[in-house]
Amino acid sequence: MKWEERLQAQMPQNKLASAGMMCTYCDLGPCVINPFDEEPRVGACGIDAENMNMVNLALKVMKGLSDYTIELPETISLSLETMMGPHHTTGITIQSLLEASRPILKASEERVSAWHIDEQKPRDIEQGVGVLQRDAVNIVLTTYEPEMIKTSRSQKMRKLAQDNGAQKINLVGALCGGTEAAYAHGIPLLGGTDQLEEAQHMIDFIYESGDCVQACEQAVENFTSRDKAQFVPTATTRVRVGYPIDTEAINAALKKGVINGVVGLMGCHYGKSTWDTDELVQTLADSDIMVINLSYDLKHAEPGPESSALFSEYGIPLVLNGGCCEPGKFLGIDSLTVLIPTWGDPRLLTAAFAFASEGIPVILGTMPFVIPAVKNQLVEAGVTIESDSSRIMDLLR
Questions:
Q1: pLDDT of residue 116
Q2: I want to staple 355 with a disulfide (CB 3.0 to 4.6 A). Which of 5, 20, 167, 360 is the partner?
Q3: What DSSP character marks residue 11?
Q4: Alpha carbon 75 to chain centroid distance?
């Protein structure tokens, strides 16, 4: 069963829960309240609709910060504890959540700089389910682990694969970490969740962490029992990766008027998002707005990258596939707007708040679970929600 089918099985989803009106914070819950002039208007602890939204958003920010081993600020932690008090309020505001989210930008920048990407260079790679090969040991890399790339290419592993009837070990990337590996080291890119589900019967091993040698050995063993009759060859697309995100050159191009702005595309088209990201990227490129794409759905626009004034003068493609969606990669770029089609991972919603805290506009493709009054507060803080990608150009002007 694919995610679309699993989502459909949930329909119709609870409208109150979709507005953030469900709380499981304490053992008085789960509480569901109704902010639309019907009872119950408050939770068992006495919390009202807006404060319930703030609690739920704070928990998402807490998860986003934890991905970078950053603790939720004490001011918000203590505020959560006051829900059971006599005033039944948290004291949490959108501005306090934005401020709490800000540290992930620097932490993300430090994480990326620690990767020491020294094999990065512009090159074309294959993308799609077709990167998997019938007669090769197919290993899918979902985390950024250069040692796994080195191990899979070793003479020892090549011989092991051939001794067991395979032509070679075929290491491909998927999800966020695999996208970074494709960007930095030029391995083929399978894609995201959709492609992983579609191709699961053609994959011999999914590497997420652990001993690289043992993973390769297990992959070879799995290859020997894979039903190759189920293998379905499919076409791939070729997309260019490997260009560095040269902040100084991009800002120079902005100042000179070579480009009219920069859009950072973070996260992937998945789930409830209704954006047509391919059309959006083409529209942006046609308007001489640079797109830095940080997703496992690699992008390109017509005509090709070498035809733009940006490439002619600065050697930078107008649509740059920059690897995984680490928000720190955007720091220092002027005239930036960040687009997030879907925030399936709370880290992305936390990143949206972090950008807004720095005055960088953000446009989300899917609504956080909030009531209209809190949505308006988000918009005022710089986080716009727009489900129709054809309207984004108007929001950029």
A1: 76
A2: 360
A3: P
A4: 28
pLDDT value for 88: 61
Residue type at position 318:
L
Domain annotation for the chain: domains and CATH numbers: 3-112 (no CATH), 123-237 (3.40.50.2030), 242-396 (3.40.50.2030)
Phi, psi (deg, nearest 5) at residue 124 = -90, 140
Q: Using the 8-state DSSP alphabet, how is residue 305 labeled?
A: G
DSSP-based three-state secondary structure for 137: strand
Average pLDDT over residues 75-94: 71
- Residue 352: partners with Cβ closer than 8 Å, 6 or more residues away: 338, 340, 343, 362, 364, 383
Chain length of the chain: 397
CB 347 within 8 A of CB 272: no
Strands of the chain, DSSP E: 22-23, 31-32, 123-127, 137-141, 169-174, 189-191, 205-207, 237-241, 261-266, 289-294, 319-321, 336-340, 362-364, 383-385
CA distances from 84 to 76, 87, 139 (A): 15, 8, 50
Residue 1, pLDDT > 70, answer no
How many CA within 13 A on the CB side of residue 299? 30
Residue 55 per-residue DSSP state: H
CA 21, distance to chain mean position in Å, is 26
Q: Which residues contact 250 (CB under 8 A, 6 or more apart)?
A: 259, 262, 290, 314, 316, 333, 334
